[in-house]
Amino acid sequence: MSSAAQESQAEVIPLPQGAQSDANFGATITGIDLNNLSDQDFQVVRNAIYTHKVVIVKGQAGLAPLKQFQFVHRLDPDAEGVHGFDTKDVTDETIGVLGSKFKTIPGSVGVTIVGQGYQGDDHYGLKDITANSAKHFHAHVEPLTTEDLENGQTRFGAFHFDGVIYGSNTSRVTTLRCVRAPKGPDLTIRWDDGSGQTMAAKPGLTAFIDSAQIYEMLTDEEKTTADNSHWAPAPQPYTSMAPGGETVPLDKLPAWVPEKGFKFPMVWVNPVTGARSFQILPDVVQKLYFKSGSDAEERVVEDNDEVRVWLNNILDRICKPNILIPEYEEGDVVMFNNWAVLE
């Protein structure tokens, strides 16, 4: 443990590998108070996030929503002081497969509600709200049946990193505070890809894939290409997606302008460890810009089938044994490097 960690009483403990997963990332942090975070504590947490990618900060039941937002902004001080999903570019017309607009806690600047169902008369200042976050059947052409769901069967929705990625850049870190956790027996997560593979998990948790592990699974030739290549999401990306892998033509999307679009590198570099992460939000890719080397000619791929075949070939390597589903409790705050994991 670092001297700063000893002085601050913070303790960072790597998560043990689960019986069903080969994932080797994640950690818990104890001994800090996010409401009163010293500079030393902040550096311990920041380094833990970038080193372990996903961390669970224990014992934060009294966390003030504004303090949660201020912590995230402290990690990226040059970013605008707003939540990316709470800008004028995010409307009922553009929210698409995300299900519904996010509800922001009053006075928090940008802490939003994720969950399902009625939240009570007063939920941190939100009156009589019913949460309706995205479910897997918003994106799957053949969703599970009601009977399957009632019998504890489920699927992953779509692995992604967080961000509007239209008019607002993706945040460096996402924090998830567990206020009220679902109760019930373990769920069975089905792959439904013909393999028969399943995975057990408690309800309400979040699954993660380490994008640095994806990068390390690439061949040397693939790494060189990824290091020099880029990708672009469709404008208004969450309305460009349709169930079953279909896409909406650009002229059928809500109004958009090219200058609010993005072109991202395929490989994102960790600011603390220097590790390279193969970081692409697969469901919204409109174009791939391939370069086999720094001086090579760029080849642009816009054909959806070619994009998907290439991405699936890479992502299928990790989407079986390397998924981490860390368990957390009410009062915990889960933090993850949004530039280095898919969730």
Structural write-up:
Keywords: Dioxygenase, Iron, Metal-binding, Oxidoreductase. Residues 18-342 form the TauD/TfdA-like domain. Its cofactor is Fe(2+). GO terms for molecular function: dioxygenase activity; metal ion binding. InterPro entries: TauD-like_sf, TauD/TfdA-like, TfdA_dioxygenase. 30% of the residues are buried. Mean pLDDT is 87; it is low at 1-6. Helices cover 20% and strands 21% of the residues. The chain is built from eight helices and 22 strands. The protein has helices at residues 3-8, 39-52, 65-75, 146-150, 211-217, 220-228, 237-240, 304-315; strands at residues 11-14, 27-30, 54-57, 116-118, 122-123, 126-127, 130-132, 153-154, 173-177, 187-190, 198-201, 209-210, 230-233, 241-242, 246-247, 264-265, 267-269, 276-278, 285-290, 299-301, 333-337, 341-342. It has 343 residues and is an alpha+beta fold. The longest helix is centred in the first third of the chain and has 14 residues, at 39-52. A five-stranded mixed β-sheet has the order 1-2-3-21-9, with helices on one face. A four-stranded antiparallel β-sheet has the order 16-13-19-20. It has a three-stranded mixed β-sheet with strand order 8-10-11.
